[in-house]
Write a structure and sequence with these properties.
The protein contains 10 helices and 8 strands. Helices cover about 40% and strands about 25% of the residues. Strands 1, 2, 3, 4, 5, 6, 7 and 8 form an 8-stranded mixed beta sheet that branches. α4 links the parallel β1 and β2. The protein is α/β, with parallel strands linked by helices.
């Protein structure tokens, strides 16, 4: 198993465990105002085919399926048990326009130009070969298709990589957060042009571990303090800025 495969395997194992702890995972990712802001920025037509990349528990996919019953929504992820639960939930909810697929974390199991839009929320910082993944997004999108990214970003003054070391305490395959300018450059290489954007924040809780204090002590206080870290008896919480960027292919 090479390093790329090891990273994907680590992500898969840890996210399967995270999804099984539903209450804690939902606390990390559920945000109604952020979800509404995403739905507002997406230029969706009723009959679109939309891929939710790194769908996880289907938080965004289910919202899209409910709001756009004539659209076809497909969730893609490396996990399996969580997707089985998503399928069960879709059946219980009577949603016939949503389905879920698993893959190897590298090559998407879809034909060229299969989708009108690809969306991804809080997932891309786990992708070990981001250039390959964005190339795959371009491949499966139709000409003039849309690509929406929502992913946390380092604070501007965090030039030493503090937030990435902090996030890597949990061995879930976190690679790194990227800046706004990095996303613009990466996506440009795969034929995408900027269309629109907005900023948001995520208040990210994790189970407390003493190692977080050790990491924080290695970095300048002004960098650490910029993330508004709060510690309780059981949790440590960090506030991260989030880039929400809409691209269009081939305009």
């Amino acid at each position: 198993m090479n390093n790329l495969e090891k990273s994907i395997a680590a992500s898969k194992e840890n996210f399967e465990a995270a999804f099984s702890e539903k209450n804690f995972y939902n606390k990390q990712t559920n945000d109604k105002s952020h979800l509404e802001a995403i739905l507002d920025i997406l230029p969706i037509k009723s009959d679109m085919r939309i891929l939710d990349l790194g769908t996880g528990s289907g938080y965004l996919a289910f919202a899209l399926a409910n709001k756009y019953p004539k659209a076809t929504i497909i969730g893609l992820d490396i996990v399996e048990k969580a997707l089985d639960q998503n399928r069960h939930s879709a059946k219980l909810d009577g949603l016939s326009n949503i389905s879920f697929f698993t893959y190897n974390g590298i090559t998407f199991p879809f034909e060229n130009r299969s989708f009108d839009m690809v969306v991804s929320r809080y997932a891309l910082h786990h992708f070990p070969d981001i250039s390959k993944s964005i190339s795959e997004v371009s491949r499966v999108l139709t000409d003039n298709g849309y690509f929406f990214i929502s992913d946390p970003t380092p604070n501007e003054e965090d030039i030493y990589g503090f937030v990435d070391e902090y996030m890597q305490v949990k061995t879930d395959g976190h690679i790194r957060f990227r800046s706004y300018s990095e996303w613009i450059a990466i996506c440009k290489k795969s034929g995408f042009k900027f269309t629109d954007s907005f900023k948001s924040i995520i208040r990210f809780p994790r189970k407390y571990d003493k190692i977080y204090a050790t990491i924080m002590n290695r970095y300048p206080k002004e960098i650490v303090n910029g993330y508004g870290i709060k510690t309780t008896k059981d949790e440590i919480l960090i506030t991260e800025q989030v880039n929400n960027i809409l691209f269009c292919k081939g305009i």
